[in-house]
Amino acid sequence: DVEFAVTNNGFIYVLQVRPMMTNRWLGVKNHKVEPAIQGVKDLLLSENGYFADADGNRTILGNMPDWNPAELLGPYPRPLALSIFQRTISKNVWRDAREEMGYSNPFGADLVISLAGRPFVDVRKSFESYLP
To answer: How far is residue 60's CA from residue 120's CA, in Å, rounded to a whole number?
Structure first.
């Protein structure tokens, strides 16, 4: 698993490298993987999806920005753990906490979304919430 960034001129910076647990995928059938991949594509390409309410014209997703679901839940959380995190923290609490500190509250913005069961933070929404 490689975390990287690409500059405007195409230079690649490797930020982190983590070993993959390949034995986890041994029993997975293609008919289970393809619908998950298509679901992620559909979500990312959707004009009315999770990303429509943030400023900017490009979505940036991360699993280790200021709210860090990769450390809080792990990179592959169980569905119940992710659901509880989303309902208790990433729907309201994160916005309310930022507002109490004097920052913006992007009302109605969910911070964490699930792409094929992996939690990702919409970095634009997080950044927007730091505006006074």
So the answer is: 9
